[in-house]
Design a protein that fits this description.
Helices cover about 45% and strands about 15% of the residues. The chain is built from seven helices and seven strands; from the N terminus they run H-E-H-E-E-H-E-E-H-H-E-H-E-H. Helix 1 packs parallel to helix 2. The protein is globular and about 45 Å long. This is Peroxisomal bifunctional enzyme. InterPro entries: ClpP/crotonase-like_dom_sf, Enoyl-CoA_hyd/isom_CS, Enoyl-CoA_hydra/iso.
């Protein structure tokens, strides 16, 4: 939603400007990272304001390390947010993918560029063209995530942020 995008942008800019902040951790709420955009919003008139692509680019360009704590799902735009992060920690039960392609939509926040940089072209093409969801264990093997945990994902992401 626009409110989530605006809050994310505001939080990133505030963290970047605060010298006491050494790293940023992005997580979802209630055990889910992000299932991406609500497709019902695609049929409404385009509103001015924040957009996902520039926010993902902002994440990627941050000088402070940004770590994604992925629980539940990171799908579509949610996965693109995670791809913009410098590091990704996923719960062992998490699933990731770009399912919007099954609706005839291409990932719109440069996920098609960032995914192959992490996984290599063959794996990225498979994910991009099929929309399949992959489990965290496969994501680790592909290089999509840096670490998987069975414990508290947020605490693990904070530990990683402090380490880097």
């Amino acid at each position: 939603s626009l409110a989530v995008l605006q809050a994310l942008e505001d939080g990133l800019k505030k963290a970047d400007a605060d010298p006491s902040v050494k790293a940023v951790m992005i997580c979802g709420e209630n055990g889910k990272f992000s299932a991406g955009a609500d497709i019902r919003g695609f049929s409404s008139p385009r509103r001015h304001g924040v957009a996902l692509g520039p926010i993902v680019s902002l994440i990627e360009s941050m000088e402070k390390p940004v770590v994604a704590a992925i629980e539940g799902v990171a799908l579509g735009g949610g996965l693109e947010v995670a791809l913009g992060c410098h590091y990704r920690v996923a719960h062992v039960k998490a699933r990731m993918g770009l399912p919007e392609v099954t609706l005839g939509l291409l990932p719109g926040a440069e996920g098609t560029q960032r995914l192959p940089r992490l996984t290599g072209v063959p794996a990225a093409l498979d994910m991009i063209t099929t929309g399949k969801h992959i489990p965290a264990t496969e994501a680790l093997k592909l290089g999509l995530v840096d670490e998987i945990v069975e414990e508290n994902t947020i605490e693990a992401a904070i530990r990683l942020a402090n380490k880097v």
